Structure formats: C-alpha cells, structure tokens
Amino acid sequence: MATHKIRFRVYYEDTDAGGIVYHARYLGFAERARSEAMRDADASVTELLNDFGLVFVVRQAAIRYRSPLRLDDEMEIETALDAMTPTRLKLCQTVRNYSGGGETATVIDAELACLSAVDMKPAKIPPRWRDAVRKLEAGEV
C-alpha cells in the first residue's frame, strides 16, 4: 500500500507541563496530514464543498499511543487508504518520531463519512474524488 508522508515539528503549544505532546493534539496533527494527503492526491476538500456541497467528517477514530513525542521533536505522519465504500473512507495514519530514528509514536485509524453540507446526511463520494483518493492506495502520490 502506498502512502502520503508529511513532517511537522512539535511546538510548545502542543505539549503539556512535562513537555510531552498532549494526547488530544495527535488528532489535530492527523487532521492536517489528512488534508495535505487529500490535496496532494488532487482531492481538495474545499473543491468538494464548493463544487458538490459535500464534506468529509470524522465518523470514528481509534488511537493507539506507543511512544511519546516531546517538545521540538520532528514527526512524520504517514497516511494510507485502508478501505473505501461509496460514502466512507478508512485511513490509517502512523505518527513517527523522525527526530528519534523513526520510532512509531501513535497509530490512528480514522473513518471519514461523506455528508451533504446542507442536511448532514450521507452522500456518495463523487467519482473523481474516489479515483483521486485511490492514489493513496495505489502509490501515485
């Protein structure tokens, strides 16, 4: 399975009093990485909203913490498509401590649902977006 990779640095605002990344911040990092992965796959979520009136929302997320990130660490987040249905995407995101030799810090399994922005009801992912998102699986990004 191919993936999208992006790096971020841990800033003071991301940490708790002990200088360790606060557990909820990983969701924010994952959101940024997902947005960049979609953009790089030519599946801009802004375009999805403007052209089709659709949005992706997180339906569920499972987080497994393995090793903490600390202030000033550089992380690499790898995003891969695990599965797709007509209305949902399942992504696996692995957060690695790039400064610490690539050790896995956290793994996030996120399920995204495609909804109509007007009534928040499930909607089919348009074919162009389905093809674009498949790049995260097929190694084109």
From TrEMBL:
Pfam families to which the protein is assigned, alphabetical: 4HBT_2 (PF13279)
Record bears the keyword Hydrolase: yes
Classification via CDD domains: 4HBT
Listed InterPro entries: 4-hydroxybenzoyl-CoA_TE (IPR050563), HB-CoA_thioesterase_AS (IPR008272), HotDog_dom_sf (IPR029069), Tol-Pal_acyl-CoA_thioesterase (IPR014166), YbgC/YbaW (IPR006684)
Superkingdom of origin organism: Bacteria
Family named by the database record: Belongs to the 4-hydroxybenzoyl-CoA thioesterase family.
Protein name: Tol-pal system-associated acyl-CoA thioesterase
Organism: Gluconobacter kondonii
